[in-house]
Amino acid sequence: MIAWWRLGRELDRWAAAGRRPRLWWRDDDAGDVTPALEALLGLATRFQVPLVLAVIPASAGLDRLGDALACRSGIFVAQHGVSHESRRHAGECDTEFRADEAPAAIASRIAAVWPRVAALPGSLKLYVPPWNDSHPALHLALRQAGFEGFSAGATSALTGLGMRQAHVQVDLLRWKPAPRFKGRGACLARLRRMLARRRLAGDWAGPIGLLTHHLVHDAASWAFLEELLGRLHADRRVEWLDPAREFSRPRASAAAADATAA
Ligand SMILES: [Zn+2]
Description:
The chain is an alpha/beta fold. The chain has one domain (2-250): TIM Barrel (Alpha-Beta Barrel). The chain is 42% helix and 16% strand. The protein is built from 9 helices and 11 strands. Strands 1, 2, 3, 4, 5, 6, 7, 10 and 11 form a 9-stranded parallel sheet that branches. Strands 8-9 form a two-stranded antiparallel ribbon. β3 (75-79), α4 and β4 form a beta-alpha-beta unit. α1 (2-16) packs parallel to α6 (184-201) and α4 packs across α5. The model is unreliable at 253-262 (pLDDT under 50). Residues 28-29, 80, 84, 130 line the site of zinc ion. Residues 28-29, 80, 84, 130 line the site of zinc ion (ZN).
């Protein structure tokens, strides 16, 4: 298929430059163990791809989720909002925390439910806002709440945020009017364009994020995800980043050791 061939050509260009693109995978809205979640975890394990689950803290099934993750490696957990309920004003985009709210109030709501996420195996101090929402009051709140990482949408990269960031650029789904698979050609073309953009900018280390939503995947989404992970796994020209390293600040003890060594 032409889209795979074009993606292969782009990977050839990276290889010719002696580089490997850095990909990562985020799946949103986990909150319980379901057949879809088990299928997702199965793909991550089968193709040895690290997976970040953005988990909704208010979900009722977190104990079951914790049990399911306890026997898995390579699965990481981020905090996905608080209850994932939109509190937008009329005419605004969906948001759990509005830009006109006090950062301290947002921080206290987020911090209050963090222990539920922290109790899960593989938890990272990483915040993923529902609807990829991103505004200054939220950023300030996340710093106040001690978050180390932030991940939102393709246009969310910020400077001076004071947190580790990696965002998602390749969404498998089209959302309006209802979620459905975006199409193999569209997903592969998007991935190829992101790779070309990074290469042409000399941004060799900039991560490219794949976004899935296991709860609403149709059969075509599952088939493509399996095909994509399988092909990239077999190809070995991409590197899957380690979320534990990407989103965590160096520990204070390690920083002190570095300072001593210097
Ligand atoms: Zn969500």
